[in-house]
Amino acid sequence: MLDALSYEFIQNALIAGILVSFIAGIIGSLIVANRIVFLAGGIAHAAYGGIGIAIFTGIPIFLGTSLFAIVAALFMAIVTIKQRERVDIFVGLIWAVGMAIGIILIDLTPGYNVDLMSYLFGSILAVSRDDLYYMGGLFVVVLFAVTFWYRSILAVSYDSEYASLSGINVKFFYTLILILSALTVVIAIKVVGLILVIALLTIPIYIAQNLSSSLYSMMIIAGFIASFFTTVGLWLSYSFDLTSGASIILVSAFSLMLFMIFSKNR
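Above: the chain's sequence. Below: its structure in token form.
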């Protein structure tokens, strides 16, 4: 693949894969620690509504999808805080309505022939320089938020009652985690697609969780593991003309299987 690095689209894809991998490692760790994988899955599928809005109105895809995903995250935050016993119903509702809105708006867009595969299973080879700026900006935001509020986020993630008694605004940090999760989902859609995004946010984290002793180390290890999966998957995609998102996830799943076998035998 070294000769392929002379192509700009491969360079962009590699940079995007590494950026998204580290963001996914950080936010995925928070998703797993807070046990909100189901909510993240709901946001991922609801984000398709933002894709539809962006295509219909002509605004940038990342902008439209990000705004819609943030709204979905805020709604889920309100529901899980006030109606926790009915959260599965509302998540399923947001999931279905978001996708339905996206499909209808794309159908209503005059003369637009959308490639659904690029959104469902990713199109990392089509990443542009503008996409990289967006991903880089989000990476900075995520690093700042997690570093500046690390102790509060740690307390909320593992013991929200203790955090509340300590004077930490649990609702604010829980909502912040959901919003950052929504933005992470949006950029991960470009790499692996909305169907496979949850795998990228959980498989590296599961492995890192078994190799780390703290949330901080889990984030770092998960970022490196996800970067390895993304790089290998991208190489396989380029070498054998395969769908990039599916290749990355299959590499992740195979690695997880080997890790579980090795751990069990050890």
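The CA atoms of residues 126 and 160 lie 41 Å apart.
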